[in-house]
Each structure stands twice: as structure tokens, then as C-alpha cells.
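Hi P.,

Sorry for the delay on this. The queue was packed all week, but I finally got your sequence through. Input first:
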Amino acid sequence: MVKRQDRLNVYIALIGLAGAAVLGTAGVLISRMPASELAHWWPYALLFAFAGWLCCRQHVYFTESTVVAMGSIAQIASIIVLPLPIALWVIGVAKASSELSLRISQKRRDWRSIPLNTGSSVLANLGGGASFHLLNGDHFLWSTHLLYPLAAFPALLALAALYHVIDALVVTGAVTLSSGERPASVFWQISTEARLPELSLIAVGVVFAVLFHFSPVLSLLVVVPVILSMQSFAAVARLRKETIEAVLKMAESIDYRDTGTYEHSERLAEYTRRLGTGIGLTPEHIKEVVLASRVHDLGKIGISNDILLKPGPLTLEERQIMEEHPVIGANILSSYSSFRDAVDIVRHHHERWDGKGYPDGLKGEAIPIGSRIITVVDSYDAMTSDRPYRRGLSASEAVERLKAGMGSQFDPQVAACFIQLLIDDGIFVPSEPPMNIHIVKAEAG
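Then the structure:
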């Protein structure tokens, strides 16, 4: 862990130094500009610096988990309107000051975000801005010829693409070093989640720049729709977040009613996340399966305490009632768009690899991979947890039962990967050499 943090600190320092080097070079170029040109641009530079500082402190909630700072609007507008060296300095100063003020106001002790985020913004705008000017975007955009502005489209496209990709790559490096996840998976997750929000803000920045070029006062017309859009996105994201939290709380109450502890779902979610990573699921798929794991027993809300908490064996009739809970849970979740991807996972988390499970008797890979993961993890946690009517099994005993169920109750690959995870954590120490596990990347379904 120490080595990982050391590597992360070095990486952040390098990003900060790279950003400083860019600003240093830009400063030299600015110093060589004619005094008359500087006198013309400095009022605009101050205006864009203030706008950039203000935008960087505002956030747009596109979804309950995707929050994007509005700084992209002012940064893109600066790149298009101002000379590139001045624009880079405006962006660097605005970003650094906004990060500094946020750290002070929120009383955060971790200051590493200042060099990381400032360096990332400077480098992303350098790449995007350089491509825009090299493709003569400013020349075409401000041309009085009727069709010339259309020729600026490739330059604007290059600006948006490089800005987004470079920013995502810098963040990917930081996340990879701090979490140990695969760079490709992290980059894909970051770029896909942020692509639509960032491109939307970039488009607003382009419109603002065009309006500002022809009339600074006219550009203020962009502010009203942007604020209304922010409020709309925030309201929708807040509603989705509150819906998810409400359903999770309901599931936790069922968890407490059944097991007497809230820790069951927490353990299940953590094991599910790590097991999903181990078998090669994408970050997006892992997120879906983890969410499903937290609500997998929601359907027990429809099972009476006499059956749910019965200490002895269930009768045939009682077992048939108990086996309805995956369907009940799936039906409840189907009413919520935020849990759309969890419905099938929850419905099939009691299916068996040999097809003898319920409710639909699915077999083998016809069972969703998320369901197969939860089946293994939930079974292990149930076996090793104490209940009012019995003591939990030891890790060794539970693993032996997992092994016995491989190929019948459990997906052999998923079970083997989970056992290896327990070995890596030191929870289970095998008496014989560990199994030779060959992991094949799981399908997306």
C-alpha cells in the first residue's frame, strides 16, 4: 500500500510539473508579444479567468453518480477566443485558484488534487487548443465568408476529442495507481461516463465563444439556459439517487430481519466487486452486479417471519413459498429504472449450474454471470455466518462445501476464482497446493 501511494504521489508530481512546464513556456511566449497586443487581450483574459474560476466551482449532476465541473465551458471558450499562450495561463490560474479555494472552504487536508487537476486541465487544453489552431479553426470560424465557418468543424472536433481523451488519460493514471485496476478498464469507464456530459459542456463553450466574439453582451444569453439545464439535471440525478437509497434501505431492513446484521450485504458487495474484477468483468458490469448483490434478497419482504425465521427445516409448502422471493424481488426492482440491469441478476441468483435451481431452472451459462457470482458469494457468507439456531462454519469447511458444489450448484470457474481470492486474503489456507485456475474473461450477459 505504501509503495502504491508513493507511485501515485510521484505521478501527481509529474503531472503538476508537466502543467507548470507548459505554463512556463506559455509565459515566455506571452512576454514576446507586442505591448499593444497584450493591452488588447488583458481585459478579456481577466474576464475569462474569473469566469473559469466560477465555472470550476460549479458542478452539473448528469446522473446520480456522474458529476462534472462546469469549468470546461470557460476553458473551451478561452481556447477559441484568446491566443493559445494567454488561454493556457488563464485556464491554469482559474483551475488552480478554484481548487485552492475549494480545499480551504471544505477544510480538506489532501492537497494533491491541486497539481493533478490543474495539470490535467492545462495538458488537455494544450492538446485540444494546439490541434484547433494548427487546423486553422480560428481562421475559419471568424471568417466573413458564408461557408468558411463550416470548415472549422474538423478543428472543433479535434479540440473536443483531444481535450476529452487527454483529461481521461490523466485521470486514468491516477485511478489505476491508487486502486490497482486495469488501465484499459478504468479508461473505458471514465471516458464513457464522462463523454456525454463533457461534450455537452464543450458544445456550450463553443456557442459561448462564438457569441462572445460577435457581442460579449449577447453571450450572456447562454447563462440562463445553462442554469436551467443544471437545475434540471440536478433534480433528475437527485431523484434517481434518492430512489436507489430508498430501495437499498428497504433491502437492508430485510437483511437485518433475516440475519440480524447489516454487515451481510456489505460483505457481499465487497466480495462481489472483487470477484467480478477477478473474472474479468468490465467496471460497468461490476457496478451492476454489486448493486444487484445489495438487493438480491429484497423479495423476502413478501415472506412471513414464520417461514423466514423458522429454525428448523421447511415443509414442502413453506419451501415453495420461500422460493418465490427471487421473483418477488425482481418484480419490485422492475418498477425502478435505476435497477433495470439488476432485475435478471436478482431473479436468477438461486439457479444452479446443473439446472436444478429456481425459479426458472436455468442451466450453465444461460444463468446471468452476475447471478452466478452472487450464488457463490452468498452461499459462502451464509455458511460462515452465525445464526440464532447454529454457529457458522469455518472458512475451511465452507470452502470444502464450495468445492463439492462446483459443477453442480456453482459455476466451477466462479467458485474457483472466489476460493483463490480467499487464499490471497489469507482467510483460507489450503492443505494442498491451490487449484490451477484458468480464468477466461466472462461474457457481458
